[in-house]
């Protein structure tokens, strides 16, 4: 399995990264986890525009899903249209919500390009991937994902505050993409996001092989996020996500 970070900027694109988007590849199958603002552009540095086979959306905040709208144009009106529909596994009501974001009537909405599948907690197969979805701790319906293929595994937190479910999803994974949006401060808001320290605490409990801190908010000093992660009790490798970084888990 190969994991490419397309976008890792938290809440909105930064100068050097789109918002959340991760490309997972195995056996020639290409699965996107999230499709946040700006990621459709950067994605084309890595694969052809039409090579996406499936998409999973953690939640429907703009920084995790809005480039579905632009991708709808590419797949509906591109030179070889119609292209095969891409399944989009997303929280309920995603088709209607994203059609509204686009400014499209509900019928046909975005269904010329996508088949929306409502997520629920559990395990399902997408191409060569066995994907586990679990509800994490964020103000809207939000899933963390674990994807396994060929004996390798990756977990992605989505957006979340502290979450036992996230520890379960990341349990024993080779790679853990964990959000670290906040810097430490007194009275951190609950049920929203994690700090670097909290991300590392989750990684330690999960026993993951490598922790990558992501959803890095542009107004923060990211080296401080990394410093804070060092106090989380995790003794494996920790690094900051970077758009374009590739992790070959084969
Ligand atoms: Zn976010
Ligand atoms: Zn969010």
Detailed description of the structure:
With 250 residues, this protein is α/β, with parallel strands linked by helices. The chain has one domain (2-248): Ribonuclease Z/Hydroxyacylglutathione hydrolase-like (Metallo-beta-lactamase, Chain A). It has seven helices and 14 strands. Strands 6-5-4-3-2-1-14 form a seven-stranded mixed sheet. The mean pLDDT is 97. Bound molecules: zinc ion (2 copies). One zinc ion (ZN) binds next to α2. One zinc ion binds at residues 10-11, 61, 63-64, 159, 215.
What are the defining features of this structure?
250 residues; alpha/beta; Metallo-beta-lactamase, Chain A; seven-stranded mixed sheet; 7 helices; 14 strands; globular; binds zinc ion
Question: What's the SSE blueprint?
Answer:
Elements lengths: L1 E6 L13 E6 L2 E5 L5 H5 L10 E3 L5 H4 L1 H11 L8 E5 L3 H9 L11 E5 L3 E5 L2 E7 L7 E7 L2 E5 L7 H7 L4 E5 L16 H11 L4 E4 L7 H8 L8 E3 L5 E3 L2
Parallel strand pairs: 3-4, 4-5, 5-6, 10-11, 11-12, 12-13
Antiparallel strand pairs: 1-2, 1-14, 2-3, 7-8, 8-9, 9-10
The structure holds zinc ion (2 copies).
